[in-house]
## 1
Amino acid sequence: MRMRPTVSWTPAKDLPPGTTDLEPVAEALSAGGVLVLSGAGLSTESGIPDYRSEGGSLSRHTPMTYQDFTAGPRARRRYWARSHLGWRTFGRARPNAGHRAVAAFGRHGLLSGVITQNVDGLHQAAGSAGVVELHGSLDRVVCLSCGVFSPRRELAGRLEEANVGFEPVAAGINPDGDADLTDEQVGDFRVMPCTICGGILKPDVVFFGEAVPPQRVEHCRGLVREAASLLVLGSSLTVMSGLRFVRQAAQAGKPVLIINQDPTRGDQHALTRIALPLGTTLTTVADRLDIPVDDQTTAA
């Protein structure tokens, strides 16, 4: 039997409660050297739902796993039909106040780096530089046979041509860009092969059940070692890909600060968890530090 990846956790009863005190975050940013670790909750104000909050996508949607994707053409047809439709909506998303605040902190030299678990590119669209995309990006596609990367927009054009009239109405869009469609809506959607070798194409993202590339993990560990503190934004830290960096920071005696409305799997390692909406919270902190948020931003 194939094991399913961890997609949920049960909060311990003795976790410290969330607060509304922003001073620890303001102090950490004032001191500089803050490493940001962001999750799906940062993008909800851009219209992209998260996974695990009340009404999050996991309440109605089981994410595609790497094992299922590679197992057979039926799963790939289902994935690409849903992802193709989701890409149309995903591509229209724009950075929100939280993304813009992170970019502003970076421009003012308060951050040592940004690691994101998101695949939406909104940090970069807001103006953040040097973002480490822990789980990859939906902007790229990779061939599982020859390893060639290509822009997602090129594949999107080929899929449009091969599936003229494909206009189903999705029940929702998920953080991984996957739209909720029934099997009937997927129908006989045509999947496109690699133009180089005819191999299987996959988005350059880390699926559930797939490991983050070791060199990327080590790069992030290096960022944690160099940081003065770790600021977690909008992540439940349910999966180990992000939680390991929280544990590393805490073990090294570096302050861990979390802004997330719901409890997280990393709360026991944190100095504080602020249970407030991210956009207004980060904007308020920026105001306290006299940092303008909306200057020099770019469109997605």
## 2
Amino acid sequence: MSSPIHRRGKGFTAIAASTVLALTGCGAHIDTAGSATTTTVNRCGEPVEYTVPQRAVVYEGGSADKLFALGLADRVHGYVLPPANPPVSESPWAADYERVEFLSDDLLNRELVVDARADFVVAGWNSGFSDTRGITPEILDTLGIQSFMHAESCFNYPGHPERHTPFEGLFVDLERLGQIFGVSDRASTVIEQYRQRVDAVRAQAPTGTPTKVFLYDSGTDKPFTAARQVPPNDIIRFAGGVNIFGEVDARWSGVSWEAVVAAAPEVIIILSYRDAPAQSKIDFLKSHPATAALPAVVNNKFFVLDYNEAISSPRNIDGLEKFAAYLREFRSGR
């Protein structure tokens, strides 16, 4: 287990770099022979000194996929995957999941991390890390366990808020993880590839009045939806739509059926969970008195977005490309 993380003063500083990096194929190989490499990277606005992790534990598919996209499967000990997550066999990195240990299908907790002898934990704030469950970066610091939080989740992190648009948060995470693991060149290449894919979608986005889009996550008494600070908002706007709750300065938020009806969405994105299939949500919207007459429902304009395409993950780019293709077809058929 690595030594405890040391706080630094304000600012962003990279320290020693004795790491020798060789990239072959899609993997990243790190040679840390000699003196230990450390680097200082922001963790939700707080500069933290890291040593190169050897035994990472990751929470949910988004965390795992970020490390796998950087070729770091050999540095991941195991993953925690609650029931909402789709099967790992559906991941572009299914082979990497096979190489690491499945630790739990429960929520992230301190005992699990300690038992796994983790030296690095990746999760989001209030999505993995939690005050109420007693697993926070500060608590892990006292245990000598390094931690990393998704930038997308940091805007309401107590004491160290940090704001990024959701897709920029993804790119920031890949850049910072690249620094921590000594694979910055690999990270730069991956980020550039993702940016090019996003730019290609934006270049093809329909012009004119944006299509009104509502994302339905869950909820019957009142709906739970995507607001401004989560990836679906960028997916919708980059594709050429407008999120009817994109002005709400939050991540995932409860709203009212009255507000949904007033907005009259033309397309509804259904967020698909493994334990809450999309079809059951569609059936509910078709039968609910408040939503049955919505334009999207009447015209059967539903798009299913995979859970791991909606949380902060490299798969956000896949979700964007798929939804953009759907929206272009929708617009052409008007």
